[in-house]
Amino acid sequence: MEDSLYKDYVQNEYSVPLRGHRQYIAYIYILCNSIGFLVNGYVLYVVGPLLFVQTVKVPKSILFYILTLCVSDLMTMIGMLLLVTEIVLNTWKFSAFACTTYLLFDSMNKFMAPIIVVLISRTCYATICLDKRKQEHAASLRCAIPQIIASISVILMLLWPVFAYSKVSIVPATVNHSSKELTYLKKCGFLPPPEIEIGFSVVACMLSYAIPLFGIIFWYMSVPLFLRKRAENTMAKGGANGTADVAVRKVITTVLVLTIVYVVCWTPYWISLFLHRIFPDLLAFSNKNIVFIFYMVHMLPYISCCAYPLIFTVMNRAIQKAHAEVMNSQRRRFKSITEDVTRHIRDALSFRIWNRDNHLFPRSSISVATCTTAQRIGLVSPTISARSNLRPQGSSLNLLASANSVSFSNLHMVSETTPLNPSPPTSPIVRIPVDEGDERSETCL
């Protein structure tokens, strides 16, 4: 919309209630977006811990590729939130930077997902069909990380038109020339010149659709051929081929599922894209059925974001088995930690209760020798055993107070019959150093 054409008009942003076809489109997109977050979150939960476990038999490179695919899909799901908001409100409510970010995430998904699927198929082929040195190299992170960095760098360079020609455009909805009022809609779009648009679409289709599809089929189908040939050699030597047959069926099943998902999700998208380029009036706003069909076709790549990580995780028994082992180990570790914490808490509470009782009813620390001496000098009744409880009706403080309250006359009378120690105890509690075991057994309680 030219600003000079409607510069004197009162401009209001158009608000359309959510109803009709747009309502169904919004609900379907919200459902797909929610499933995408749940599926990729589940795959991160399953695969993430395995990347840091050394005993996992699944190649680290494949685990890293799956995690990268999940991160890429989550970025696409975040961008999809902006698209869902635009569908619900029927106008773009965000900034131009948010528009560029959404289109960048959406375009990167068209490249990243197929490229990562190709890298996984190439790694499976290398770790099975090549020699040991190449197998170890293909399975290591030293091989996977540079490939991902190089892929992202190439993709960002190819997406330079997205940075240059993404913008928020204003579309007039209704114009009242008599009252000079204008209602408009804001739309986020990729609007390059026609020659750049056609060239970008052709290059993107070749690099993100045709070539990856050929690579997936070639490398995955090379695996069962190699396994079949090796099984024939094993049978010629008198061995069994049952394991090879199972592996071949598993690989073929994986190839069929990946190929079906890839073709079903991406072929209609690229066909609709070129139809829109050839017939620009095909998406006329008056034809709601065509608009609904195009929205459903545009949603198919988002469905692939949910399908790929789930296929690589659910159909890989080694990943499922390794995840179960890691979870069992973590449960045992958590149970052990919980038992240790519970024991420490129980011991601490027991000590506090014991300390409180000892404060209210202090225990005598007079040793056996001290009790015997006290009996000889008459401070303690001879009927009290050295190992008996010296706590009378109240507490042991009563006994010690009685012992300290003995008059000097009584003490002098006792000393005539029984020789006293030259240095009588000055403390009400006399501690004699003994071993820990003796201290526990000989303390007067």
Automatic annotation (TrEMBL):
<keyword id="KW-0472">Membrane</keyword>
<keyword id="KW-0675">Receptor</keyword>
<dbReference type="GO" id="GO:0042277">
    <property type="term" value="F:peptide binding"/>
</dbReference>
<keyword id="KW-1133">Transmembrane helix</keyword>
<protein>
    <submittedName>
        <fullName>(pine wood nematode) hypothetical protein</fullName>
    </submittedName>
</protein>
<dbReference type="InterPro" id="IPR017452">
    <property type="entry name" value="GPCR_Rhodpsn_7TM"/>
</dbReference>
<feature type="transmembrane region" description="Helical">
    <location>
        <begin position="251"/>
        <end position="271"/>
    </location>
</feature>
<feature type="transmembrane region" description="Helical">
    <location>
        <begin position="291"/>
        <end position="311"/>
    </location>
</feature>
<dbReference type="GO" id="GO:0005886">
    <property type="term" value="C:plasma membrane"/>
</dbReference>
<feature type="transmembrane region" description="Helical">
    <location>
        <begin position="198"/>
        <end position="220"/>
    </location>
</feature>
<keyword id="KW-1003">Cell membrane</keyword>
<feature type="transmembrane region" description="Helical">
    <location>
        <begin position="24"/>
        <end position="53"/>
    </location>
</feature>
<feature type="transmembrane region" description="Helical">
    <location>
        <begin position="143"/>
        <end position="163"/>
    </location>
</feature>
<dbReference type="GO" id="GO:0004930">
    <property type="term" value="F:G protein-coupled receptor activity"/>
</dbReference>
<dbReference type="InterPro" id="IPR000276">
    <property type="entry name" value="GPCR_Rhodpsn"/>
</dbReference>
<feature type="region of interest" description="Disordered">
    <location>
        <begin position="417"/>
        <end position="445"/>
    </location>
</feature>
<feature type="domain" description="G-protein coupled receptors family 1 profile">
    <location>
        <begin position="39"/>
        <end position="312"/>
    </location>
</feature>
<keyword id="KW-0297">G-protein coupled receptor</keyword>
<keyword id="KW-0807">Transducer</keyword>
<dbReference type="Pfam" id="PF00001">
    <property type="entry name" value="7tm_1"/>
</dbReference>
<feature type="transmembrane region" description="Helical">
    <location>
        <begin position="62"/>
        <end position="84"/>
    </location>
</feature>
<dbReference type="GO" id="GO:0043005">
    <property type="term" value="C:neuron projection"/>
</dbReference>
<keyword id="KW-0812">Transmembrane</keyword>
